[in-house]
Amino acid sequence: MTRTSVERIPRAGDEVVELKLAHSPDSDDAFMFYALATNKIRSESLRFTHVLDDIQTLNEKAREAFYDVTAISFHAYAYLADFYVLLPSGASFGDGYGPILVSHASGAESLRGKRVAVPGKMTTAYLALLLYERDIEPLVVPFDEIIPTVVSGAADAGVVIHEGQLTYNLEGLNKVVDLGEWWQEETGLPLPLGGNAARRALGPRVIRESARLLRESIQYGLDHREEALLYAMQFSRGLDSPTADRFIAMYVNDWTLDYGERGRQAVQLLLDRGFEAGVLPKRVEAEFAD
């Protein structure tokens, strides 16, 4: 992998800097990065190689500072803050909705001591679950196997993310609690799920240019919704177009363009609550690139 240092920041006549940009193979991320991936948005100084992987794997790779720009869970950021700075665009918030705890039972039920399938111990879904109920037995499975795991009875309940939030009922499962809805009732704020971060070692100029391109790519998708949706459908895991569009609208919107004061407050509060609950090992201040 090409590593970029401050000394290699491009100036007039310099070579283009190659960066590895990592994100999830999901319809919302595909929509967000559509313009960059298809060269609708270009840069004279940066060139991106796109790498797609599930969010738990991206979180783990980020602990090694493996990718230059990467999607991460805000839970994981607590372990990455020394190496990465958050970009001011590209976040996913659950504004009154979010990861959903599902089971065979209908209505709210006690989770105490139950086995709960989760999509990774560094995901925000897992952090939110622990803030809701600490006394559980987590069972880590790939996010797209959580619903089958609960259906089979291998877990008593599961936390579904991505498109599963819209399809779990088709498998005969019921909502126990929507963790985004619960968080908003508790705090009055949206639940910050994940964002994009850049390696600090890239230096401020490369980070600023990366942030600009990401924002422009998001804006392009929002301004050219039909073509961006058509591209994102490749990653929708069987959703029809209206359902995929609904899912994308949930997680690529004004919050994604810019956190705003409330969004940044929500990120900090999540990190603070995680530390106060004993889930996170230290108090972390969220830092955003200029």
Describe the structure.
It is a single chain. Helices cover 40% and strands 19% of the residues. It is α/β, with parallel strands linked by helices and 290 residues long. It folds into 2 domains: 6-94 and 191-276, Periplasmic binding protein-like II (D-Maltodextrin-Binding Protein, domain 2); 100-187, Periplasmic binding protein-like II (D-Maltodextrin-Binding Protein, domain 2, 3-Layer(aba) Sandwich). The strands form 2 sheets. Strands 1, 2, 3, 4, 5 and 11 form a 6-stranded mixed β-sheet that branches. Strand 1 (17-23), helix 1 and strand 2 (46-52) form a beta-alpha-beta unit. Helix 1 (27-37) packs across helix 8 (204-223). The radius of gyration is 19 Å and the shape is globular. It starts with 16 loop residues before the first strand and ends in a 14-residue tail after the last helix.
Number of domains: 2
CATH architecture of the largest domain: 3-Layer(aba) Sandwich
Can you identify the CATH class of the largest domain?
Alpha Beta
Helix content: 25-40%
- First-to-last CA distance: 26 Å
CATH fold-type name of the largest domain: D-Maltodextrin-Binding Protein, domain 2
The CATH superfamily of the largest domain is identified as Periplasmic binding protein-like II
**Helical element count?**
12
Q: What's the shape? A: globular
Number of strands: 11
Q: What is the ordering of alpha helices and beta strands?
A: EHEHEHEEEEHEHEHEHEHHHHH
Task: Flag low-confidence runs.
Answer: 1-13
- Can you give the mean pLDDT? 92
Q: Please indicate the percent range of residues in DSSP E strands (runs of 2 or more).
A: 15-25%
The description of the largest β-sheet is: 6 strands, mixed
| Computed Rg | 19 Å
Overall SS class: alpha/beta
